[in-house]
Structures are given as structure tokens and as C-alpha cells.
Amino acid sequence: MSEHSEIYDRSVAILKLNDKGSYTVPTHGLYPFQWNWDSCLTALGFSHFDEQRAWLEIETLFAHQWEDGMVPHIVFHELDDGYFPGPDVWNTRRVVPTSGITQPPVAGFAVKRLFDRSENREQIADRVKALVKSIDRWHQWFFDCRDPQGEGLVALIHPWESGRDNSIDWDKPFVNVPTDGVQPYTRRDTQHANPAHRPTKDQYDRYLWLVEHFRSLDWDNSILHDNSPFRIVDPGFNAILLRSCAELALLAEELDEPEIAHRNSRWAKRGINALEKLWSSEHSQYVCWDRVAEEQINSASIGGILAVFAPLSQERVTAIVSRLKTIAANSKYLVASHDPTDNRFDSKRYWRGPVWLIVNYMIIDGLQQAGQHQMAASIEHDSQALIAESGFAEYYDPVSAEGCGGDSFTWTAAMMLEFISS
Ligand code: DGY
Q: Using CA positions, which residue lies closest to atom 7 of ligand 1?
């Protein structure tokens, strides 16, 4: 496809519209700050027309890495009371305020891909090396603070960390999260997006309870995991971490950082083996593990399919492809974020059914790596069809193709650039 096709130009225009100079907002209004995994995936989009801007996006994020190694999920670069909860609620007491939790660690994957694509490798090698060291510190933080028993997999302590805020996966474990004592608040998200597409008030109360609880523990990551009533091992989140470890290992090798390479390659291998505990023969996919109840969560969500982003065995990949065929038979556009035959499925409500193109992109990439080109092509076809039908939405109804949530959405445009330019 020509670089100057109409869809290419529209995608570039959205990235420019949401560009704040050194970081990008996911969309104006609903999300007016820098989000962690949004930025890393957005950098891939920038790389098709402005490589330097792509690197800057990720460097800006890592400039706000915490001293303990965590990279926060939001950086509040400018005040904007159109979003809740803002810096005063998090109160992490940083010079540039940030949230106190993290997000799917896709940076290792993104940085490796950007470097592979670069036409200026020699000139940028030192900048990339600095990023490799920061990403390695983040990975180390995950295994230290979110895997205290050394199982090889890390736990989320807040649904916002997964990116899949209101997934059906959290319904059962969320019962352990109380709502008493939460400070009165006014939601702002429902003023920017259709409330029927967003999480419920009951879920928000629990999100806020967790934030206030962690704040009362002074955001001390050495104790948050063990003191959280919500500790979930999500296969999708872990697959992103493990793929990033594997990619960072390769990049570190290329940049002559053997210790980083060795460490990350070891984490990747150990984690892939540990993922077996999350395999569900009943659903022919991975499912979440509840580290509080010590049991699998019976919920066939996209998290267990996104696991294919990690380098899995052929046996597991083949089973996931057959699972994808079942999902395709029950919804028009791949890949619904929850099993469409489950009576809890909701085609428009955020992560309880809608299709998200960033997740499609990672599933496609994992399938391609495993040689499953036909299914990868079907998902890419559906992804582009959704944009053709409904523009650059935040997410889409997998049955009707309706665009949901925010619009002129940065990462959707970035993924389109990836699809049409690769
Ligand atoms: C939100 O505010 O909807 C976000 O998903 C939290 O990061």
C-alpha cells in the first residue's frame, strides 16, 4: 500500500492531533495524560514517519521511572481536572506526579522492534542502551515485587494494571475488595464517553478503595503485593512481560550487555514453563490464576488468548488457534475480549466483549512468529474492516462494528500504521 493512501494520512493525522511534543495523549478529554503501554505501542506508529519522535515517546515515559524500578501507568505531565482520579488522589509525592501502579510491560518488545527498523542504529546505540538498562530494571522490579515466591509469573494488584479494567476475569476476586470508607468522588470518564460503554459504579468504588489502600501503605512496593486483597496472575499480562524479556535479551546481546541478556532470557524461559499452571483444557486457552484464593478463575477472556504473544509451544498455539475459530463462529469481528457464548459477555462494555486493536496486533504478531499466518491474516483483515466501518475508535463492538469509548484514538491509529506499513 502506498505511503500516501488516505488511511495512512488519516492515521498520521491522529497521532499528530494527540501529540503533546514529547508524549502523546491516548485521546483528548477522556485520557489527557501519558499512559504507559499506550505510549510504547504508539511509538511503533510514529516510527513509520518520524523515528526520532518514536524514541522520544518511550524516553519520556522512562524519565518518570521510579527509583525502585517501577514504571507508572500514568504520568500527569499537565494538570487537567477533566480526568478522575488525578494526582491528588494518587498522592505519590513525585516532582512530576504519576500514578502508583504499573501497566503491561510492552516496552522491551517495542524498543527491539524500533531498533530493528532503525536506519540510524549506530547513531542511536547509546540512547537505546540506556533504555535497555531501564527496561531491565523494570523487569527486575516485577520479579522482585510481584513474584515474591519466585514462581516465574507476576501478579497484578489492581485491575487498571492489566489495562483490561472491567474484565469478567475480575468479577469473582473483586468480591474480596471492600468499598467501605471510599472518599466521595465524581467520575469524569462518563462525561466524555457513553456510560453504557464504561465500567460500573460498583467497579469504580473498588478501584478507588484499592488506590486509597495502597496510598495508606505509602506506595511501598516491597509490601503492596502481600497486602493487597486482589492478586491476580493474568496470562496476557505475563505473556507481554515474557515476550519483552525475550526481546530485551536479544537486543542486549546485540548491544553487548551480556548480563542483561542472560537474566532476561532466563526469566522468559522460566515464565513460559510456569504458564502451564494457567492452562485450561476446558476452554482450550489460558485463564487467570487468583493468588489469594489459590485457584484458576473460570473466565475465558482475551487475556488467555493474548498469551500467544509469548513464545509458546506449538501444541499450545494450535489449541489457541482452534479457540479463535470458535470465537470467530460466534461473533462477526475478531477478537472479542470475552467469550461471546458466555452469558456475561457484553459487546459494548469496555473489556467485557469489545475488540481492541492493540490486543489484536499482539495476537497477530504472536501467531505470525509461530507460523500461523492464516489466522493472523483473518484477524488483521477484521481489524482493518473495523476501522473502515467505524473510524479510529478506542474499541469496537465485535457483532455490529460500532465504535465505542473515546474516538480519534492514538493507539488504534498506530496499529493501523503497523498493519498497512508492514
Ligand atoms: C481509566 O481511567 O479508564 C484507565 O483505564 C485507568 O488507567
A: 160
Instruction: Assign domain 3-421 to its CATH architecture.
Output: Alpha/alpha barrel (1.50)
Nearest to 23 by CA among 35, 14, 13: 35
**pLDDT above 90 (res 325):** yes
Ligand 1 pocket residue status of 161, Cβ below 6 Å? no
Domain boundaries, the chain: 3-421
165 is catalytic: yes
Who contacts 19 (Cβ-Cβ below 8 Å, separation ≥6)? Answer: 53
The C-alpha atoms of residue 289 and residue 153 are separated, in whole angstroms, by: 10
When pLDDT is averaged across residues 237-254 and rounded to a whole number, the result is: 98
In this predicted structure, what is the pLDDT of residue 250?
98
Inform me whether the pLDDT recorded for 45 exceeds 80: yes
- Residue keyed to cell 520479579: 143
Q: Is 83 in the pocket of ligand 1 (CB under 6 A)?
A: no
pTM of structure: 0.98
Q: How many angstroms is it from 329 CA to the middle of ligand 1?
A: 31
pLDDT band, very low/low/confident/very high, at 4 (cuts 50, 70, 90):
low
- 116 labelled catalytic: no
Best mutation site among 71, 80, 165, 352 for ligand 1, i.e. most ligand atoms within 8 A of its Cβ? 165
